[in-house]
Amino acid sequence: MSESPFAVEMNDVVIRFPGVLANDHVNFTLRQGEIHALLGENGAGKSTLMNALAGLYRPTSGTIRINGELVNFSSPKDAIAKGIGMVHQHFMLVPTQTVTENILLGLDQPRFFMRLKEYDQKVLALQDQFGLRVDPTAKIWQLSVGEQQRVEILKTLYRGANILIMDEPTAVLAPQEIDDLIETMRSMVAQGKSIVFISHKLQEVTAVADRVTVLRKGKVTAEGVSIAGMTKRDLAQLMVGRDVVFSVAKKPQKPGDVVLSLKDVHAENNKGVPALRGVNLEVRQGEILGIAGVSGNGQSELAEVITGMRPCQGSILINGEDVANQPPIVSIRSGVAHVPEDRTHVGSAPNLSITDNTIMKAYREQPVAKGWSVDFTYARENARKLKRAYEILAPSVETMARKLSGGNLQKVILAREISIEPRLMVAVQPTRGLDVGAIEAIQTLILAQRESGTAVLLVSEELEELLSLSDRIAVIYEGEIMGIVPNENADVEELGLMMTGSHLEDIRKQKAASDAGRVTS
Ligand SMILES: Nc1ncnc2c1ncn2[C@@H]1O[C@H](COP(=O)(O)OP(=O)(O)OP(=O)(O)O)[C@@H](O)[C@H]1O
Ligand SMILES: [Mg+2]
Question: Cα(386)–Cα(111) distance, rounded to whole angstroms?
Fold first, then answer.
């Protein structure tokens, strides 16, 4: 029998959840040695389809072939045995154990701890083969998100994976880490592996993928089409079914009074290391202040001290009232909305319904509060309205938050935070993990907040997003503000230098000196 040209063939696959047809007669093929992008709007059914390939779900009907052979997985173990490895968006590592220990975890290696050094060497060899650098003896909690992801990839490779499924691997990575991951993916296919790549970042998709399959509401709208000659715009059109504008229009507007003012704010991170070192900032009514920087430079801590979730030194004034070190309820009462970075743990209650999640902040106040209790009829009606307005895809407002796709959960949180008509909105990576259509919708909503006079602190790693939304951009590096520039004449090179640790004044001094040098010589 000749070897099949296909690593994977999924035929007529149907996956049904109560009230949801997640995959509707889907055909999907993965060729040997290709990178195949799987695209679609939030909730289109991408993760569900790949979870079935990885043995986590059993299709309601349809067939799966691996290298030409019909398979019927009843657990992830079966899928691993056939060479399938999946890197999920939420990592499944043990924080207190080392890299090597995590890679070996669950394998029947007798007394591996006796020969840990030997296994460290094996892990290093695997790293050399694919260019995935991470210290095998480091503990997981000491690693950055990007390094943890490398451990997840090494783990699948160690188990002999030839077919790798990567579910939004770049959503959590900094730009440099994305470039490194793309290098690794190229090296993997060069060595005969086949990759399914799920991403909402169309730029990356056109750069790295060979073919693309697009899902819309569970159905295939493009099946294994060659990516050659396709633009970002073509892909967006296939996903959303309409034209997408990639930059929203911002109206010129004069900012009003100061709403938020930080003076000499210091704070520590969870490990007790200084994370904010003397931050001074102001945000005015109707103004968006963008915070740029590589993640892990104090952005999360900045949002947390403002919203009362982290102790600090210094003063934080909201409309003149000092809220530093006050419980979150004080900032909520002063009209602060918060879109947190960690939506699954901080932003939402997974086992509560969409309705409950939309009133988590408002249940103490009219119109949701009714005497001592909550007006559930009102709450449900309101949740239905938000579900329509924000196009939240779910069977009903009674659906539990944990059953929502990543992007739809994000929309629930945004809907809740914006509907309290905040004076100040602190938004951390509000469009991360969203599809192109949803990004456009959310950015439009943020601009509408600005127009209605809300002060917005927008933390984002996407420079493009900051440049299209912000009035001013502040760059944070190791807990320090390196400089603040107006958006109109922001210089991308200058922003980049600040993001890697140069102060704005030093950059300008150096530039002046070199310009002067050029004139005199
Ligand atoms: N365990 C589950 N129980 C019930 N419904 C589910 C479950 N898992 C997913 N769904 C539903 O199936 C549909 C497809 O979800 P899926 O997670 O596959 O979307 P996705 O394309 O990966 O979206 P995103 O880009 O937002 O991650 C959604 O409507 C989701 O709510
Ligand atoms: Mg998904």
Answer: 55
CA proximity to 461, closest of 429, 430, 501:
429
pLDDT band at 112 (very low <50, low <70, confident <90, very high): low
Residue range 84-113: mean pLDDT, rounded = 81
Q: What is the rounded CA–CA span in Å between residue 412 and residue 419?
A: 11
- CA end-to-end span of the chain: 75
CA atoms within 13 A on the CB side of 280: 5
Which of 219, 390, 403, 412 has most ligand 1 atoms within 8 Å of its beta carbon, as the pocket-test mutant?
A: 403
User: Would the pLDDT of 366 be above 70?
Assistant: no
Return the closest-CA partner of residue 194 out of 18, 363, 8: 8
Count of CB atoms situated within 10 Å of the CB of 240: 18
- Residues with CB under 6 Å of ligand 1 are 17, 20, 22, 40, 42-48, 393-394, 403-407
pLDDT tens digits, one per residue of 151-180: 999 999 999 999 999 999 988 777 778 888
Cα–Cα dist 259/287, whole Å: 10
Domain covering 6-240 in this structure, CATH number: 3.40.50.300
Distance 344 CA to ligand 1 centre (A): 15
CATH among 3.40.1400.10, 3.40.50.300, 3.90.1150.10, 3.30.420.40 for 256-335+423-521: 3.40.50.300
* Ranges of each domain in the chain: 6-240, 256-335+423-521, 345-421
**Residue 377 amino acid letter:** T
Which chain residues have CB less than 5 Å from ligand 2, an ion?
Answer: 47
**Which residues have a Cβ under 8 Å from the Cβ of 468 and sit 6 or more positions away?**
247, 248, 250, 443
